[in-house]
């Protein structure tokens, strides 16, 4: 900070990196360490990149205002409160802003729901440019809790996320590249093998379990479910959705994408470009089917095929007719699509 500030015994402050634009803080030079109200404190990340996520209710009179915060952990500290009780707390470092002046401070996380002020500003956060006037209050510009009600999604603060990739191949190239990209942006990301998940399905505490323990709460899940795992994978994704976790692809969307016919009907319904397609099972009108697809060459594919299996290119009408007859003999559902 470059300017000089005079603070009363209580001031409005902002912690922009935590997504907290307005908090009333009590200035207490008797306390060495600053403290911030935090509930549902949850550590995550590796030992090389420890993070902590917590929920903050900035307005003591309105618990409905809830902000999910996360930040890198710089350590743990045992703090003795004014009533003599000691508590081990996570310590984070984050910028504080008062009247346009910004500087980094260390903050411990603790439950202050019984306190009148959600934040305590200790003497370690008070620089040589700050003067304290203990007999005065709110000497700096006043803020308002209304800012939380007016915030729009596009203005939400960037913060480290805990992300899970639902996959059967944690070591494949695309998963490794996603992990690299997420970690380069400060996020914590880990692979969850779909088949090793099992679920507690109830109306009070739905959970996904993995290797003997309930999985932690994720900010987002990226489903990467192979065709052989579709049914079970969709069930796991639905479970995460029940728990309120954001899933990049919903179970419904995954199911629609695996149903070739439904996927084509949805594309057509929304007027999205796609090849002319005919769908049949046992129709004897081979010529009519080929005409609906726009004539040869065509691709004939089984509805249940995956990864190119059961998909055949017919370059002539004779070859296409033979394929259609073969699929008809199997009494299989098939698509005929222009090539």
TrEMBL record:
Ligase keyword on record: yes
Recorded coiled-coil stretches: none
UniProt cross-references to SUPFAM superfamilies, sorted A to Z: Acid proteases, Glutathione synthetase ATP-binding domain-like
Domain (RimK preATP-grasp): residue spans on this chain: 161-254
Residue stretches making up the Retropepsin-like aspartic endopeptidase domain: 7-141
Domain of life: Bacteria
Swiss-Prot/TrEMBL keywords: ATP-binding, Ligase, Magnesium, Manganese, Metal-binding, Nucleotide-binding, Protein biosynthesis
InterPro entries: Asp_endopeptidase, ATP-grasp_RimK-type, ATP_grasp_subdomain_1, Peptidase_aspartic_dom_sf, Rimk_N
GO biological process, one term: translation
Molecular function terms from GO: ATP binding; ligase activity; metal ion binding
Domain ATP-grasp fold RimK-type: 258-339
Cofactor dependence: Mg(2+); Mn(2+)
Keyword flag Methyltransferase: no
PANTHER family linked to this entry: ATP-DEPENDENT ZINC PROTEASE DOMAIN-CONTAINING PROTEIN-RELATED (PTHR38037:SF1), ZN_PROTEASE DOMAIN-CONTAINING PROTEIN (PTHR38037)
Family: In the C-terminal section; belongs to the RimK family.
Name of the molecule in the record: Probable alpha-L-glutamate ligase
Species this protein is from: Hellea balneolensis
């Amino acid at each position: 900070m470059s300017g000089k500030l005079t603070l009363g015994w209580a001031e409005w402050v902002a912690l922009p990196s935590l997504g907290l634009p307005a908090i009333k803080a009590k200035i207490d030079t008797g306390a060495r360490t600053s403290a911030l109200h935090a509930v549902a404190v949850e550590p995550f990340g590796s030992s090389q990149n420890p993070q902590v996520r917590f929920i903050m209710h900035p307005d003591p009179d309105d618990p409905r205002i809830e902000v999910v915060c996360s930040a890198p952990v710089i350590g743990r500290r045992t703090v003795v409160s004014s009533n003599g009780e000691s508590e081990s707390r996570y310590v984070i470092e984050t910028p504080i802003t008062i009247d346009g002046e910004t500087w980094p401070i260390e903050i411990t996380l603790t439950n202050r729901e019984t306190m009148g002020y959600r934040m305590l500003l200790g003497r370690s956060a008070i620089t040589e440019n700050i003067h304290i006037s203990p007999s005065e209050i709110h000497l700096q510009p006043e803020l308002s809790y209304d800012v939380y009600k007016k915030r729009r999604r596009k203005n939400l603060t960037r913060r480290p996320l805990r992300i899970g990739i639902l996959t059967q191949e944690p070591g494949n190239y695309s998963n490794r590249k996603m992990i690299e990209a997420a970690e380069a942006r400060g996020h914590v990301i880990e692979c969850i093998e779909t088949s090793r998940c099992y679920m507690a399905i109830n109306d009070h505490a739905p959970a996904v379990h993995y290797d003997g323990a309930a999985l932690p709460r994720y900010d987002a899940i990226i489903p990467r479910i192979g065709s052989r795992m579709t049914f079970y994978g969709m069930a796991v994704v639905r479970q995460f959705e029940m728990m309120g976790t954001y899933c990049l692809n919903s179970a419904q969307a995954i199911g629609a994408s695996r149903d070739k016919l439904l996927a084509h009907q949805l594309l057509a319904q929304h007027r999205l470009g796609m090849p002319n397609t005919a769908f049949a099972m046992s129709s004897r009108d081979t010529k009519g089917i080929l005409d609906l697809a726009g004539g040869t060459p065509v691709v004939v594919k089984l509805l249940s095929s995956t990864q190119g299996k059961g998909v055949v290119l017919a370059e002539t009408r004779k070859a296409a007719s033979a394929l259609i007859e073969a699929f008809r003999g199997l009494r299989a559902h098939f698509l005929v699509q222009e090539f």
